[in-house]
Phosphoribosylpyrophosphate synthetase
Amino acid sequence: MQHFTTLTEAMEALRERGYTAEFSPRQDYLQLTGDDHTKLRSEEFMVDEFHRFEGTSDPGDEMTLYAITASNGIKGVFVSAQGTYANEVTPELMAKFNVGERPTVNTEGSVQPIEPFGANQ
């Protein structure tokens, strides 16, 4: 998987691969931007891959870009800023984006855990 330097670069590459829709979070679903009728609950989409980015001046400016495919065939992206949606969505919806333990999600672009000191000795 390709590693991207910027969020914009990653979004462009995903658009070229067919992830053309943009989604915004609501309480317990994702809403297709510009379409009040298309709402996806957590069981109606899969996370295909994700990419994390940190701000150049503040590591706390973390953003994660998720590429998702809906059960109805729509492919799109969802950008989650660190803590931005903490009070706006249900824990069940955000749990869908906890992809570390899922073998079907491409996690190559994710931040890898640091090995404990002395673990390789």
Q: What stands out?
A: The radius of gyration is 15 Å. The chain has one domain: 7-95. The chain has two helices and six strands.
